[in-house]
Amino acid sequence: MTVPKPTDGTRWRCTLCGNLTRFDVTRSSKVVEYVHLDLAGEARIEEQEVLSESIESVRCRWCDAADQVELVDRPGAQV
Ligand SMILES: [Zn+2]
Question: What radius of gyration do the chain's Cα atoms show?
Fold first, then answer.
């Protein structure tokens, strides 16, 4: 099952327990990082560009259901 992606006006809701706020999200992404090392060799990432990103699964923190989310309107969102 593919996970629907929340938009500006929608959010996830667990269809089993109604949880709206806590999820474990497994995401895979391809990212270009600008790594800046200081003279001691300590690395710091100064810029990140996300080339592609996909959500592989969403697990509910309350009832442990995997990929049982639906999109509902956010409070106050314009439909
Ligand atoms: Zn749940």
Answer: 17
C-alpha 9 – ligand 1 centre gap (Å): 21
Q: What percent of the chain has pLDDT over 70?
A: 95
Beta strands in 1-79 (DSSP E): 10-14, 23-37, 43-60, 69-73
Instruction: Name the DSSP class of 63.
Output: T
Distance 59 CA to ligand 1 centre (A): 8
pLDDT at 3: 87
Question: Are 20 and 26 contacting, i.e. CB atoms less than 8 angstroms apart?
Answer: no
pTM reported for the whole predicted model: 0.74
Query: Which H or E element spans position 45?
Result: strand 43-60
Q: How far is the CA of 76 from the centre of ligand 1 (A)?
A: 23
pLDDT, tens digit (0-9, with 9 covering 90-100), for 61-73: 999 999 999 999 9
